[in-house]
From TrEMBL:
<keyword id="KW-0472">Membrane</keyword>
<keyword id="KW-1133">Transmembrane helix</keyword>
<dbReference type="GO" id="GO:0070453">
    <property type="term" value="P:regulation of heme biosynthetic process"/>
</dbReference>
<dbReference type="Pfam" id="PF03647">
    <property type="entry name" value="Tmemb_14"/>
</dbReference>
<feature type="transmembrane region" description="Helical">
    <location>
        <begin position="117"/>
        <end position="136"/>
    </location>
</feature>
<dbReference type="InterPro" id="IPR044890">
    <property type="entry name" value="TMEM14_sf"/>
</dbReference>
<keyword id="KW-0350">Heme biosynthesis</keyword>
<feature type="transmembrane region" description="Helical">
    <location>
        <begin position="65"/>
        <end position="83"/>
    </location>
</feature>
<dbReference type="GO" id="GO:0031966">
    <property type="term" value="C:mitochondrial membrane"/>
</dbReference>
<feature type="transmembrane region" description="Helical">
    <location>
        <begin position="40"/>
        <end position="58"/>
    </location>
</feature>
<dbReference type="InterPro" id="IPR005349">
    <property type="entry name" value="TMEM14"/>
</dbReference>
<keyword id="KW-0732">Signal</keyword>
<comment type="similarity">
    <text>Belongs to the TMEM14 family.</text>
</comment>
<protein>
    <recommendedName>
        <fullName>Transmembrane protein 14C</fullName>
    </recommendedName>
</protein>
<dbReference type="GO" id="GO:0006783">
    <property type="term" value="P:heme biosynthetic process"/>
</dbReference>
<comment type="function">
    <text>Required for normal heme biosynthesis.</text>
</comment>
<keyword id="KW-0812">Transmembrane</keyword>
Length: 143
């Protein structure tokens, strides 16, 4: 229960990290620096998905688990990269987490086992919620 609550707090918090000072030149005199918000939650989710596939392969020898984990983990990582570059570009992440929430939710409903299907369904639903909130909070156009 505690990991799910912790993951929920992380997903719905507004975490962003500024890479450098806004405008101007960096301290070493190189080109102007820009602010870029990194989607740490998206990268963490991608890591969770990919590592779940690897664990499934190591424990059960499941090649489909490995392939699906690496495919969906890669797509989630690409989506996190896109969000890091443009916070309004959530479509790849939303499609990936939506598909995983449906697939793993169906598996959890059938097996009633929390690991791994329930964990992945819950994490994917939290990502869908986070990304849906991001769509609703689009910034207003500046004059």
């Amino acid at each position: 229960m505690f990991p799910c609550v912790l993951l929920g707090c992380l997903v719905f918090s507004n975490i962003s990290v500024s890479h450098a000072e806004a405008g101007g030149f960096s301290s070493n005199g190189s080109a102007p620096a820009t602010n870029m918000s990194v989607d740490w939650i998206g990268y963490g989710y991608a890591t969770l998905v990919a590592s779940g596939g690897v664990v499934g392969y190591v424990k059960a020898g499941s090649v489909p688990s490995l392939a699906a984990g690496l495919l969906f983990g890669g797509l989630a990582g690409f989506g996190a990269y896109q969000i890091s570059n443009d916070p309004n570009n959530v479509w790849v992440s939303l499609a990936t987490s939506g598909a995983l929430s449906a697939i793993m939710g169906k598996r959890f409903y059938g097996s009633r086992k929390f690991m791994p299907a329930g964990l992945m369904a819950g994490a994917s639903l939290l990502m869908v919620g986070k990304l849906s909130l991001a769509l609703l909070r689009k910034p207003a156009a500046s004059p």
